[in-house]
Write a structure and sequence with these properties.
20% strand; two-stranded antiparallel sheet; 15% helix; 1 helix; alpha+beta
Length: 100
């Protein structure tokens, strides 16, 4: 029977309670962060989260990645295309198609 140690945390962002595995090192070999998990400072305002659940951690990671992503300089601006009117088949009064 396999066993692993977990710790119960409450997310500082959404207040969800979750069990997370105790990790001594992350995937890159760095020691696990025992302090604040996320600290953001912008124009004098600071947001700090000590514990984040999996969902909030992924959401914050995606948001930070989108903010720090450099725009593609090679990409040309989108050119609006002309709208083509839809071809409408007309019917007679009773809804029967035209006979040809």
């Amino acid at each position: 029977m396999a066993r692993r140690q977990v710790v119960e945390i409450q997310c500082d962002r959404c207040h969800r309670v979750e069990n997370q595995e105790i990790v001594s090192e992350d995937k890159s070999g760095n020691p696990a962060n025992d302090g604040k998990e996320l600290i953001i400072t912008f124009r004098g305002k600071t947001v700090e989260y000590g514990d984040l659940c999996k969902r909030c951690r992924e959401a914050c990671t995606n948001y930070i990645n989108s903010l720090t992503k450099k725009p593609d300089e090679e990409k040309a601006p989108a050119v609006p295309q002309e709208k083509v009117p839809e071809k409408v088949e007309r019917t007679n009064f009773l809804g029967i198609g035209k006979r040809g």
